[in-house]
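The authors assume throughout that readers already know how a fold can be written as discrete tokens. The format is easy to grasp once an entry is in front of the reader. For illustration, here is how one protein appears when written out as sequence plus structure tokens:
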Amino acid sequence: MRFPSDFLWACATAAYQIEGGANEDGRKPSVWDTFSHTPGKTFQGDTGDVADDSYHLYKEDVRLLKNLGAAAYRFSISWPRVFPDGAGQPNEKGIAYYERVVDELLRNNIAPYVTLFHWDLPQALPGGWQSRDTSKAFADYAAYVSRRLSDRVQHFFTINEFVCFTDLSYSSGQFAPGLKLPAAQVNQIRHHGVLAHGMGVQAIRANARAGTQIGLAENATVYVPVIESPEHIEAARRATREGNAPFLTAVMEGKYTDRYLEHAGANAPKVEAGDMKAIGSPLDFVGLNVYTPEYVRAESTPAGYSVIPRPSSYPRMASPWLFIGPEVIYWAVRNVSDIWKPRTLYITENGCSAADLVTAAGRIEDTDRVMYLRNHLTHLHRAASEGYPIKGYFLWSLLDNYEWADGYSKRFGIHYVDFRTQARTPKLSAEWYREVISRNAVV
């Protein structure tokens, strides 16, 4: 099961999850610093103050990538490291750090793929995502970073996973800043999120070097037909469009669906002139973060589909939300391709938590993670072989890291990190992935 000869094999991380250096070189707090230091918000009060200390150990992490044979690395930039107050004066020491990371990657023939926002919003921005001004501040930040880095970075992702810094942050309160707001305010926050993306695309186009590629990394809900028959496949397509209406659908179509607006009613977001055109700014690629499926069947209802509840026996990985359904990665690619026909797709995250154990011999035999990855890549190969425009795969994650509200209790890395010593140890999954990369095939 070989992949196309130009297929990109890579890994991904995020700034707050790996960097540490929380108070160094002019960085000021993000909402995640505040949230994680608030008692009761994270597992055992864990914070990202140190994390993997990649702020100091980034050269070691680049060596891990090189040892895998990875051709690219998707990492995020800490907005409060570059603009400590969210806007205004940039911090030269902050952007200089990312210049050093980029240069180290390029010295090792690894292409940098930069995510501009992976949830670590500067605490200093008044109102956070409740404020429309935050969208404008993001565009200014995107303009500055792309001006500084686009001589060496050819691929920028505006934003990572809308639902995680909108709904999970301002509706359920699971993530920073931990608020539980009414539906009308949440819908407006969602709008500010996709508006920030659109304004960011425009800012990068205006400031980056010609030829810079721009996209986003979105964990769109992936709907899998219960049976591959025409009516259920059509149901999965309908579900994909409506189930992602406030985010990916709005970005790809430059409008909110009628059903979304009807359902929201008086709680629908307030949209200003030019907003939807910005939100629908053309993209060079779409990144999909893929973990777990929702199964749908065709129904003779106005929606045309229903989502099937999972039985209690349905298998999952270590995280309670991470249900196993490897065909999800094929349908993520196929549904998005069939509906919106993007020129290029990347899987920008795929991976799993596992209860990793260090053996007496010092090895981490994460056979369950290898099983998860192997099965997903088998289905990704199907998408590639059927001609869908899938161009690369970014495994999540290079390292065990700070897993947000789960703190250090969940390990997603293919390299084991001892958080006391910061020692990195390749797991069985790292050996396996190195073999996949060297063969350019499912192993």
Observations:
- The two ends are 8 Å apart (CA to CA).
